[in-house]
Amino acid sequence: MICFFSLFLPACARKKSKLLSCVGGFEQHAHSEVQRAQSLALLREWETTLLDIPFPLGALPLSREHIQESGSSGQNFLAYTVALSAPDLTTFYEQEMERLGWQKMAALPDFETMLIFAKPDRICSISLRAADDESKGKENSLEFTLVVLSIGKKTQALGLAKTPGNYDEELYS
Predict the structure, then answer these.
(1) Which SS3 state, helix, strand or coil, does residue 78 take?
(2) Would strands 60-61 and 68-69 be described as parallel, antiparallel, or unpaired?
(3) Distance between CA atoms of 70 and 62, rounded to whole angstroms?
(4) CA 171 vs CA 32, 66, 77, 106: distances in Å
(5) What is the distance, to the nearest Å, from the Cα of residue 21 to the centroid of all Cα atoms in its chain?
(6) Do residues 158 and 150 touch, judged by C-beta distance below 8 A?
(7) 173/162 Cα distance (integer angstroms)
(8) What confidence tens digit (pLDDT) does each residue in 41-82 have?
(9) How far apart are CA 155 and CA 88, in angstroms?
(10) How far apart are alpha carbons 98 and 125 in whole angstroms?
(11) Could you tell me the pTM of the whole model?
């Protein structure tokens, strides 16, 4: 009789380990859902404060530690990743920024693509770089791009002083 029940013990152990792995998977999924909700809230905050800056669908903001705001000066630096290639993002920003009233000043394609757009009193530089991804090069893997935006007044963003010939001290300190 004891031998008969001992045959079922390994099955019980497997069932318990499956249950524990399901619980662990649920906790990990719940944690990722919390992170996703925080990212979406941060993206909504950006969209409300930067009404004339487009963000592609699927943009995943980096944490607040990677964002710098210089308060009342109006200069912002923010970053996100998105599952689009740099050429696709270049097309997206060229079309959407023009639609929102920005004029393209420069596009510098290289290892890191740099796009510069201007309005009469503001400038926006957009840096696009392929994100480091272990799955890069694997078949059916998504290509992620790191996007860094710098938005500010023309004189701040360019690092120029308000008077010609007077260099911005912050650049050299």
Answers:
(1) strand
(2) unpaired
(3) 18
(4) 39, 21, 16, 22
(5) 31
(6) no
(7) 18
(8) 766 776 666 778 898 988 888 865 545 555 556 677 888 899
(9) 30
(10) 14
(11) 0.60
